[in-house]
């Protein structure tokens, strides 16, 4: 009877013992990956600002407001196309959450700004400098965002996790995924 119990236990434990060798992932590797993972709760961000009363703006200040949501659509190009031939791309859409641009401008003491230029990276990681003027500064569909699809952080292109986005219904707006600095005019 005792040998039977031991045999059943060994049979039951064999898949567990083989699992790390099949996946090449051991418990210590899993633990280190989880510790290094960046998630929404662990990120902080701040923006450098020139031309306004405040010189920095943080996630904590932004979260004092009710978050707004916009549906963002971006054209994502593939350098050699998905099959390696030619240039191709696809439209990528996601829900982005953040605060309205008008609330951001009020917080930094620039509610009457005539322009805002943001510097950072686009969704392909290229440097961008984009200026927003006129009605777009007060448009409720323009947000300073950092949450994607309600649970994920925006992609980090080594600069920041915050971006400036507009609802896809406004077709002429250039979004930015990784804002580093903002100049108020």
Describe this structure as you would to a colleague:
This protein has helices at 2-23, 27-36, 59-62, 101-107, and strands at residues 46-50, 56-58, 68-78, 88-100, 115-121, 127-133, 142-148, 152-153, 163-166, 178-184. It has two domains: 2-36, no CATH class; 46-184, Alpha-Beta Complex (Sulfite Oxidase, Chain A, domain 2). With 185 residues, it is α+β, with helices and mostly antiparallel strands.
Chain-wise SSE layout:
Layout: H1 2-23, H2 27-36, E1 46-50, E2 56-58, H3 59-62, E3 68-78, E4 88-100, H4 101-107, E5 115-121, E6 127-133, E7 142-148, E8 152-153, E9 163-166, E10 178-184
Distance between the termini: 84 Å
Structural class: alpha+beta
Here the CATH topology of the largest domain equals Sulfite Oxidase, Chain A, domain 2
Give the strand order, joined by hyphens, for the main sheet: 2-1-10-5-6
Shape: elongated
Helical amount:
10-25%
Quick one: biggest sheet?
A: 5 strands, mixed
- Over the alpha carbons, how many angstroms does the gyration radius reach? 23 Å
In the predicted model, the low-confidence regions spanning at least 5 consecutive residues are none
Give me the count of strands.
10
Which CATH first-tier class of the largest domain would you pick?
Alpha Beta
| SS field, number of helical segments | 4
Mean pLDDT: 80
Q: Which percent band covers the strand fraction?
A: 35-45%
Q: CATH H level of the largest domain: which superfamily?
A: Oxidoreductase, molybdopterin-binding domain
Number of domains: 2
* Architecture (CATH level 2) name of the largest domain: Alpha-Beta Complex
Order of helices and strands: HHEEHEEHEEEEEE
């Amino acid at each position: 009877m005792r040998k039977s119990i031991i045999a059943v236990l060994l049979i039951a434990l064999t898949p567990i013992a083989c699992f790390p060798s099949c996946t090449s992932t051991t418990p210590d590797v899993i633990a280190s990956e989880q510790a290094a993972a960046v998630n929404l709760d662990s990120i902080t961000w701040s923006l450098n600002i020139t031309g306004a009363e405040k010189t920095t703006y943080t996630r904590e200040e932004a979260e004092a407001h009710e978050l707004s949501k916009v549906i963002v659509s971006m054209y994502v190009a593939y350098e050699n196309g998905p099959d390696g031939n030619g240039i191709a791309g696809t439209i990528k859409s996601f829900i982005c959450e953040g605060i309205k641009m008008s609330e951001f401008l009020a917080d930094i003491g620039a509610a009457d700004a005539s322009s805002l230029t943001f510097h950072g990276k686009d969704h392909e990681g290229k440097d961008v400098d984009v200026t927003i003027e006129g009605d777009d500064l007060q448009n409720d569909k323009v947000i300073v965002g950092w949450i994607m699809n309600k649970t994920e952080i925006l992609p980090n292109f080594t600069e920041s996790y915050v971006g400036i986005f507009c609802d896809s219904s406004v077709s002429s707006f250039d979004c930015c995924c990784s804002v580093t600095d903002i100049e108020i005019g």
